[in-house]
Amino acid sequence: MIITSFPLIGILLLFMTAFVMPLIKTKSLIKFLSMASFFVCCALFLISLEYTINNGSYLYKIGHFNAPYGIEFKVGIIECIIAVLFAFVSLMVTWYSCYNIEHDISEGKIPLYYLLVHVLVGSLLGIVLSNDMFNVYVFIEIGNLASCGIVVIKDNKDNIKAGMKYLIMSSLGSGLVLLGIAFLYSMTGHLNMTYIQKTLAITYMNYPNAIFITIGLFTVGLGVKSAMFPLHTWLPDAHASAPASSSAILSSLVLKAYIIFLLKVLYRVIGMDIISLSPILNIILVVGSLGMIMGSVLAIYQKHIKKIIAYSSVAQLGYIFFSIGLGTKLGIIMCIYHIIGHAVTKAALFLCSGAIMENIGEKDVTKLKGAGKEMPYTFAMFFIASLSMIGIPVFPGFISKWYMALATIEVGKPTLIILLLASSLLNAVYYLPVIINAFFVKDNLDDKIYKSKEKSKKELIPISILIAAVLFTGIASYSIIELISAGISIGGI
Amino acid sequence: MERLLTNYFETASVVLFVIGFVTLLLHNNLIKKIIGLNIMDTAVMLFLMAKGYINGRFAPIIIDEFKGVSGYINPIPSSLMLTGIVVAVSTTAFLLAITVKIHEKFGTIEVNEIIDKENEVR
Lengths: 493, 122
Description:
The structure holds 2 protein chains of 2 kinds.
Chain A: H1 6-20, H2 27-55, E1 58-61, E2 72-75, H3 77-104, H4 110-129, H5 133-152, H6 157-188, H7 193-203, H8 208-225, H9 234-241, H10 244-270, H11 272-275, H12 280-300, H13 305-326, H14 329-360, H15 371-374, H16 376-390, H17 396-410, H18 416-440, H19 442-445, H20 457-475, H21 477-491
Antiparallel strand pairs in A: 1-2
Helix pairs in contact in A: 1-2, 1-4, 2-3, 2-4, 3-4, 3-10, 3-14, 3-20, 4-5, 4-10, 5-6, 5-10, 6-7, 6-8, 6-9, 7-10, 8-10, 9-10, 9-13, 10-14, 12-13, 12-18, 13-14, 13-18, 14-16, 14-17, 14-20, 14-21, 16-18, 16-20, 17-20
Chain B: H1 2-6, H2 8-26, H3 30-52, H4 75-106, H5 111-121
């Protein structure tokens, strides 16, 4: 069946088109090729999502080598949902970048930018789909270099410094992940996740300490890369200084792939039986709670609009780690739902802030007074997306917080709901002033001309599609959650 | 103590890993940081290579005649670390390239001096 090969074709398509980019001279052709390949990729993953819903998950052998010797892809409902999400968000971000990438990047580097974006998204899809530990490590390293590449491609002082910090921190993370893989290999003799799990289930009593060290190595290593709270220091600089479309991809996709890999390590490789013996879930819970409070508190002190959004990412990742730390099925479902909701919302927010910084020329939020009159549509969309971040009903932010609260009651820790509420209020404290300043400060509105600095309609289309996706994720939440829970009950994570 | 001596490969690699880790985190000079990262990567390579080594057997390369399966060490860790070396080389190259850029922009590669310059601008 050709349909079973679609995930592999999707990834290979991105890698192959990536290296065609530097050979093409015309810029419009590069942009068209990039959008077309993301569109095809999105369509391929939608078809395989439909296939997995009807036929269940399957293991895809690459090159027809059998399991312990060859590399496998595990294609299930969860993987397909995340892959569709990644392809969709990168399609929208690329569409937006087509109109104004010249604003951030010098002419000669545009083919290289699209090369890096393709390689990055391809490697993220690989991390999500692959069932082989070492293959995931190679994809992590490719993604690592490519994501630093799209930060430093804008040749500025801040970018180079932030890129250096990002690269050192994430190389540290991949070193720890590699040591974790080495530990797992020495304990089990396998690199295939299914086989590691089978062997560990029998022999884990022989290595009581080594397993805990392994879990710790993976949690810290992937925590550095996905900005777990005390290790988040690289994130605000890197995300704030990168070009708008890069920071949208970095914030909404790159961090999420590592979280999916952490979930795979915890539940598919090591297994619930061993995890429940160790205190790791409680540690993740504490770290997540700290992240969601401290990320928001740090965001309040920021003036740079993109730094506010970047610190808000730290807080939102806190929610994701919080729901992993609960350790129940509902917790994992909400983790994946929050990944979806946060990916579309944060992409929209970063693209809006990029448009604001470009047209008004001001990145300080206190100087954006009355700017809502000049760019009404952009600020309206910024408003809708920030409502989702705060957690107003109907929007995905509310739904994930609601179910997270239910899950905390389920595990018998209802006091943690106070943290969820406090974090929501803190979110409101830093998002609403931006909007209030932009629309309602009376004495500034008079000398502004209505719609004078608005983006043209075609540039607003990709952002508005992302906003529509936010609303869709909120309104269709029931069926999305049903789908995720079906994916979890069929084959683990 | 005896355990540490029997597993001397593992002990050595963990000691190297910690040396690399500390160099990466605590040194101000960017080149020294990169060297630290390299030591860290090499330590992991030593660890995994030691796992594939079987005493008294040969490297898994066939010269002249095939010695039978029991004649060679486990080839998988060696081949994995070949990939690991490629990854480490490319990361190092990228880090050095950014270091050159930093020297261009700031005129120094000491992290504390870069931070001082940033604060002066503010």
